[in-house]
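Write out the 3D structure for:
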Amino acid sequence: MNWQKSRLKWLQEGDENSKFFHGVMLARRRRNNIHMVNVNGVNVEGVLNVRQAAFNHFSNHFCVQNVLRPGVVNLPFCKLSFVEAGNLTKPFSEAEVKQAVWDCESFKSPGPDDVNFGFIKQFWDLMKDDFMRFIVEYHRNGKLMKGVNSTFIALIPKVSSP
């Protein structure tokens, strides 16, 4: 690769900088060489020995070891009763939904139509039937109704003739 770089530079600039370029590359090669490594307190020198030491280190480092990992077989888990498990899948009541809406911050995260929870709280008496119908439909199907997550983008030109 260095040879290709030197040929490219020679073709672009001629022969005037090739000695400088080769001097810089030779200095970089010397700086990047690993002449000696310390393995378990012993200095290892030579290209083949350093290469073998690096290979041994990483082959030992990434080999599979038998490790005892904690299991969950003998842990005492609390189990839900049949009634408690059934309560997890029962439909939401209007009081639960209202409490969840009132627990949300009123003026955070307006939707694409600028409707936030403050709006829903203020007009709860008018919207609760539609809101509950939406929640029940989601609970029944596990899917949001079509169009809930859709947005419209209007491109407004900022100059008279774009």
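The beta strands are 36-39, 42-45.
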